[in-house]
Amino acid sequence: MATITISRLTEQEYLAFDRAAEYRSEYVRGEMFAMSGSSPRHARLGAKVSFQFELQLQDQRCRSYSSELRIATGPPKNYLYPDVTIVCGALETQEGADDICTNPVLIVEVLSPSTAAYDRGLKFQLYRQISSLNDYLLVHADDILIEHYSRQPNEGWLLRESRGAAARLPLPNLGCELDLGLLYAGVMQEPG
User: Fold this and answer.
1) Is residue 85 in some structural domain?
2) For 39-60, how does the pLDDT look when each residue is reduced to its tens digit (9 = 90+)?
3) Whether the model pTM is above 0.85
4) What is the pLDDT of residues 104-156, one digit of tens each?
5) 32 and 25 in contact (C-beta within 8 Å)?
6) Which of 21, 29, 105, 132 has the greatest number of CB atoms lying within 10 Å of its CB?
7) Inside any domain, residue 165
8) Which range of residues forms the domain containing residue 97?
9) Domains: count for the chain
């Protein structure tokens, strides 16, 4: 998850610090966690996922955002930086803060050994508080595999896996799909 923890900040203190900092930090339950850098493989997978979405969503009302977009969850307020965020319709922001998104419909996290437990556990728990969120993707960096969690009418979440270079991951809520062969082409040779 992180390498540096600064304990017990107010929401306002965190936002002031994070906006002025040279590196990104997440704010979870009153604590700030500096985000560590990612491997070349992790960074490339995030970029390729975003690119596939951009190509398929360009004629729709949905847009793809990089890991620089801060997302709000809660209450209480938590601030997170997903690897990729999809927003449909107008980007909605927190009152008084045009740099904090409140209406993602799909979030992607690329799994790395240091973040996998956090991305599957607490981070997913916090993301589930976002009422607009319908899909959560965990993209594996060490295998050609995507875990797709989709919100169900009863507010539960259904897990489906897509595995292997021949697989395609349909995303009916967006009317598109991810081609795992294209997504992972050349990626596994990158430092992990």
Assistant:
1) yes
2) 999 999 999 999 999 999 987 8
3) yes
4) 999 999 998 888 999 999 999 999 999 999 999 999 999 999 999 999 999 89
5) yes
6) 105
7) yes
8) 38-184
9) 1
